[in-house]
Structure formats: C-alpha cells, structure tokens
Design goal:
Elements lengths: L4 E4 L6 E4 L8 H14 L1 E4 L6 H9 L4 E9 L15 H8 L16 E8 L7 E5 H6 L3 H7 L3 E4 L1 H7 L22 E3 L1 E3 L6 E3 L5 E2 L6 H15 L5 E4 L6 E5 L3 E5 L9 E7 L3 H4 L5
Length: about 280
C-alpha cells in the first residue's frame, strides 16, 4: 500500500501531501487520502505534472463530475496571450474569480469540490487563496450564530459578475455556464457538511438579497461575514509551481484567484466534482 506524508499548513485547514503519485494510487491509499481530505479540506500535491486525462481520472475518484475539465487560462487556442481587455468575456471571468466564492452555488446543485492543476504559471503572483468557512462559523459570536441560523441568500453568477463591473454580452466570448441561470437558487447562510456533520457558513461573492432585509443591509451583512472569515488563521494563499495539483472541499472553503501581470501566460485546469443532490440541491424560490 502506498504511504504518504501529510504536513499541515499554517492555517486552520489544509495540508501538503508528498510521497505519492496521484496517477498511480491503489484503492487503499485513495481511501486514506479521501479521509485526509475530509479532515483538512484542502490538499496540495507538489510535482505531480498530471496530464488532462490523469486529472480527470483522479477527480472522478471523488465522485461524479459536474464537468470534466475546463482551462482557466489567459492563453488562446492559437497559443497567444489574450490582451487584458475588460470587454473580453474570458478576461471578465478570470477577474471575477478574484472575488471570494464557492463554486456552483449559483447552480441548482452546489459542487462538492474541485481538482486544480498548474501547467504554466507567471513569474510572480497569480496565487489561489482559500478561506475556511467552518472555522469562520466557529469564530462567530453567539448572537451572530443565532442570527445567521435563520437567514438565506440568493446566489447568482450574473449578479456577482455585474457587481464586479462585468455585464456579459449575448455574443461575447463567454456567456454560457452559470450565466444562463434565470432563477437564482436560495441557500441558507449556514449549512451542515453531509460527511462530517460540522456547520459552516455559505457565503461569497455570488450571495445577495437576504429575504426580509433591505438590499443595502443585506449587502453589508454578507460582506461582514466574508471579511470575518477571510482573516488569518483562516486563509491560505498558494504560490503555484508548474506541476502542482490541489483538491479542495467546496462545501467548506471559499476560494479566489489573485491578480498577476496578464501579459504573462497562466494556464490552469479545473475539474469540478458534482455535489450530491440530496445535500447540495437548492431550487429556485
């Protein structure tokens, strides 16, 4: 059985895992790795250099995929680097992702997690950050815990992109997945993790419009929860090296990309693990 080493990060979550190759895990090693993932929520694997097929195969071991693979990249298919033009739909999505968020909260079924790999990285910056929603919930005072227990918020990618200054065009470079949802789901601000049973906040840039609150009050309250959560020791920003792979629990962590010099190429690949409809479904209201 493959053995591996787990080194916890200097944060309330996360670990660096070494001593294994993700493309060559036996079932016993993966079972131990899955339990480690549930414990730490974010696992970082240096020097993996997964092919696209290997990444999809590894992600599939965590469950069915919401989608198998998408490039998160400022490089065009012809190999040229996109001009940093805020009218470009792909640039809009890349910049929108710089806000703290959970994946697919704007879809009927929120994602379970994701496997992310770095293929080409800029010479500086371009990190990815994660923030611990469980520790954020645990650190709330009693009055705020009582308040959030009864509240929900709508989630919309169209809303969050517009708030970031980007209005998608019908004929733009990116106007599909998530942006075509017309009826935003309503999700509680506190959710229970279906596998660990622990509570965490469910917030981020896609959340808005708490029913029963004035829109400005809702916006301020949701921002205060993000600001509270995204503070040390509840955050970690990873400086990528080509060949790195990570897997994170989208049911417990916020994440964000960080700015970089967009004249430099940054090519990442994202495989999104589908959530279980029994625990992650939130229909339109």
């Amino acid at each position: 059985m493959t053995d591996f080493h787990v080194a916890p990060l200097d944060a309330s979550f996360g670990a660096v895992v070494t001593g294994l190759k993700l493309a060559d895990l036996d079932d016993a090693a993966f079972s131990r790795l899955y339990d480690t993932w549930l414990e730490y929520a974010l696992l970082v694997f240096p020097d993996q250099h997964l092919s696209n097929d290997q990444q999809v195969e590894f992600a599939t071991r965590f469950g069915e995929l919401e989608f198998d693979l998408v490039a998160i990249s400022n490089v065009k298919k012809d190999g040229s680097v996109r001009v940093e033009d805020d009218a470009d739909g792909v640039i809009q999505v890349l910049k929108g992702n710089m806000g703290w968020h959970c994946d697919s909260t704007y879809m009927p079924v929120q994602a379970k997690g994701a496997v992310f790999t770095a293929h080409v990285v800029p010479s500086s910056r371009g990190e990815t950050g994660w923030a611990d929603l469980r520790a954020g919930y645990d650190a709330l005072d009693a009055a705020t815990k009582e308040k959030v227990a009864t509240l929900s918020a709508y989630h919309s990618l169209r809303y969050s992109q517009k708030k970031a200054g980007f209005t998608p065009k019908a004929d733009g470079d990116y106007n599909g997945y998530g942006l075509d949802v017309q009826d935003p789901p309503l999700r509680p601000l506190v959710k229970t993790h279906p596998e660990t049973g622990r509570k965490s906040l469910l917030i981020g840039r896609h959340a808005y419009g708490i029913p029963g609150m004035d829109p400005a009050e809702s916006e301020a309250f949701l921002k205060s929860l993000v600001d509270h959560t995204c503070q040390p020791p509840r955050v970690y920003h990873h400086r990528w090296t080509a060949g790195d792979a990570v897997v994170w629990d989208n049911r417990r962590l916020l994440h964000q990309s960080c700015p970089w010099d967009m004249t430099q190429a940054r090519v990442m690949y994202h495989a999104r693990i589908a959530g279980d409809p029994a625990s992650e479904f939130a229909g339109p209201n």
